[in-house]
């Protein structure tokens, strides 16, 4: 073979190598995840346990995430991803190339989900459905745990008070977490919240942590005004100290299991339930919602006063008028009742 022929072959091989290298680089690095959508947000890809490569492709195509399915398939095969599909939640950032996207999926580098819940949750069943549906395991395994007396006892709670474990906030967890891992995380957050200082304040009030959260749930149901919550808490603590029934309307609504009630009537008050604080003295068996930290702290740091009654203001501002005796309270209540009548709020 002549020298010129060798040089020609070398040059041809070099050109081919560079071409294939450049083509491979394009296949791997050219943006392929929502590449041409300027305002695209990361796509949350959920891959359940047992999913196949084809089901991953189907999901990506269904949501029009891939710009070029063929190149994604080709690079996936080179990287042996079809044999290494891992369950999890993955955020696919716009403009990501095939290599980086597939590397993340193949390694199982999950992104955590954000779990948020607040005092809008009133029933344990609501908590189970809202929280459970956020995870791969679904509501039922969580229901089994929260309805299990032995599981609840492990956390110093029972099947009624177990919801106290869930302090409202936003948490990051993996979508594939097991329900037992979720409870362990909530228990850790619960312990962090109940600092020695908070425990000491509860003890000074003569209340357990669960009782504080139960009272806080009533306070939160009475008013969303954080600046008023310590005063409302003070009213209920005054009543507890004096052995007066709490007579909290939100507990009656909870007892009747009818959250459309806007005006508590005698028929509602007659409903026999341990949650009916017009009928039974003391605190109800457990919280009537998931009280936020602000409401819990309002109970732990109540306003010191001698009020025993309060009623919503007639301007429907969300604030209340407070009174020290029944005579004042009846007068204030009549003003509010007239306002309800004027607005034709009869139930």
SSE blueprint and pairings:
Layout: H1 3-29, E1 43-47, H2 53-62, H3 69-78, E2 88-92, H4 98-107, E3 113-117, H5 124-132, H6 139-146, H7 149-154, E4 169-173, H8 179-193, H9 196-205, H10 209-222, H11 229-242, H12 249-256, H13 266-269, H14 293-300, E5 309-312, E6 320-323, H15 326-342
Folded structure, characterized:
The protein has 347 residues and is mainly alpha-helical. Helix content is 49%, strand content 8%. It has 15 helices and six strands. The strands form three sheets. Strands 1-2 form a two-stranded antiparallel sheet. Its EC number is 4.2.2.29. It is found in: Cell membrane. It is an enzyme of class 4 (lyase). Functions as a peptidoglycan terminase that cleaves nascent peptidoglycan strands endolytically to terminate their elongation. It holds the Pfam family YceG.
